[in-house]
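Example record for the data management plan.
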Amino acid sequence: VGRHYGMQVHTCVPFDPESKGGTEATVKIAKADLVPTDANLRADYASFAELETACETFTHKVNARRHRESARIPAEALAEERARLHVLPAAPHTMALGQTRSVGTDQTVRFGSVRYSTPPGLVGAEVWVRAAGMELVIIADLDALPTLPAWAGDRRGLVEVARHRLSTPGTPRIDLAHYPDHPQDPTGAPRVPRPRARTSAERDFLALGDGARAWLIEASAAGTVRIRAKMTAALELAALVGTDQVDAGLGIAATAGRFAEGDLATIVDHHLSGAAVADLVIADETHSAQPGTTSWAGFTTTTSMETTR
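Corresponding structural encoding:
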């Protein structure tokens, strides 16, 4: 805390009783100011507004009467001193804002070999970064930007644009909300692919329904061959048996991983025969269509061996 805020702890000097008394007096005054025990005003005021009003009344009272030591009225003395005081600048000195950094094309700045994201509209701009406790604060001058970002609103001048938890090299701090146009969901949810048709045949296939879109996504992820030919076959089948039947079959095929030749026709024919769709079999490593030897379990054979001496 001392190094961060520039505080220096004064201790007593050995063999110097006066410094020991001064240190003790400082601690005593600080404890009396921060932790009052005898003068607890909590019971006298029902709210902070009442306490603030009482403080303003007391301030006007003491500033309007003559001071015993200076023999001057503080309010009149302040009016004379203001002629010698300069007005504070509207913006603080940039040294107080931290170190300067340039925002890269990926909307990040580097601090301590770690990348931290910034809101859109700051690419190429110069910002200030500083560590505040366990957080990194990023300040930008909005008046220096060629175009004011939409998220700025009515804010102008030096504005805190981002705040991140400090990290270590190799672990960047990226806020997904800083990339609203990115396909990644800002909440962190995985991105759901959205198929886009390029030809009229592809548009007709996707128009079959949600099952067709799901089939195209899963078939592409599984590396299915001759996808366009199978899409054409699905359209021809839809013209024969109906769009709803084919779309439902494509959805089941996508869920079960059935992308081979003739799988869609088999599923549709199975549905048209009135079979239930509750028992869905997914073709994976735990299921095989290869006939086994289970049917031979009911047969018993007796082998007699003749021993010849």
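Summary line stored alongside the record: The chain has a mean pLDDT of 80.
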